[in-house]
Design a protein that fits this description.
single chain, 276 residues, mainly beta, Immunoglobulin-like, Glucose Permease (Domain IIA), eleven-stranded antiparallel beta sheet, four-stranded antiparallel beta sheet, 0% helix, 39% strand, disordered N terminus, binds zinc ion
Length: 276
């Protein structure tokens, strides 16, 4: 009998670095020999929007919530019920074989970016913009079109571009690589703003967070140390502001920086902190 086979729930395969943000697990209390029951847990201190889109017909036998807004750190039991007879779990359950996942940091019903906000450059000294908005290397998705890759050096101090609350940190990685399979190895800090949007500061150094989960940070406060972790070929800071939407999950939004209002930052140029 294979009743006791370990159930692996793989999430987000190769494309998104969300494995730390949300956990989907076997619900040990309600799972029976006939039905595998999964719970879902938001690991962030912000609300989270989560949606599944069916990609394999096998999922028609599953019972689940198609869309869900989870409160900070909320765990929801009975999120998904899967009749065991309909699936083969001998190799583990690869949920991403049945569904595409759409995730957003925040509640789509309240998140709305304040486009008049002027962000501080998140570092001080002159650094080259190595990939700008719509960059073809990796800023090629609705989640990343409006992202910036600043060529900060390992050890550079990173500052909050906007005030807010620290809602998720990862700083335990010292790995990097040239392919998307390293995407989950990037250290990061995510800060939620008062308009419900979030800023993500990626590729930070090992133990490179100078703030803690739940901290309220001021604009310009030191928050981290730049590094080279995750999916990257060179030290840099990936900076992006996201708005939560029901349709597409996190979408990146266009922003402006102090000293460069109304200007488009160009790839290959150097930019330093500048007063308006
Ligand atoms: Zn980037």
């Amino acid at each position: 009998m294979k009743q006791l086979a370990i159930i692996y729930v793989f999430l987000f395969g190769i494309s998104v670095a969300h494995a730390q943000h949300v956990s989907i697990k076997k619900d040990t209390i309600t799972t029976t020999k006939d039905t595998l029951v999964l719970s879902i847990q938001n690991n962030m201190l912000s609300p989270m929007f989560f949606k599944v889109k069916v990609k394999d017909v096998g999922a028609k036998n599953f019972k689940y919530l198609e869309k869900i807004v989870l409160q900070p750190l909320e765990k929801r039991e009975n999120y998904m019920k899967i009749p065991r007879k309909k699936i083969d779990t001998t190799q583990g359950l690869k949920l991403s074989g049945y569904f595409d996942f759409v995730v957003a940091y925040g509640d789509p019903s309240v998140a709305s970016h304040n486009d008049s906000y002027v962000y501080l450059l998140p570092y001080k000294k002159k650094r080259k913009l190595i990939q700008g908005n719509f960059g073809r290397f990796s800023h090629d998705h609705i989640r990343s079109y409006h992202a910036y890759d600043f060529g900060t050096k390992i050890g550079d101090t990173i500052y909050a571009a906007r005030e807010g609350k620290v809602v998720l940190i990862k700083e335990d990685s010292n790995k990097h690589g040239r392919t998307r399979k390293f995407a989950n190895d990037g250290n990061f800090i995510i800060i939620q703003h008062d308009d419900g949007t979030t800023a993500s500061y990626y590729h930070l150094d090992f133990n490179g967070a100078l703030v803690k989960n739940g901290d309220i940070v001021a604009r310009g406060q030191k928050i981290g140390i730049s590094g080279m972790t995750g999916f990257t070929t060179t030290p840099h800071l990936h900076f992006v502001v996201h708005e939560a939407t029901e349709k597409d999950g996190n979408i990146s939004v266009p922003i402006q920086f102090e000293g460069y209002e109304g200007k488009k930052l160009k790839k290959g140029r150097k930019y330093a902190r500048r007063k308006r």
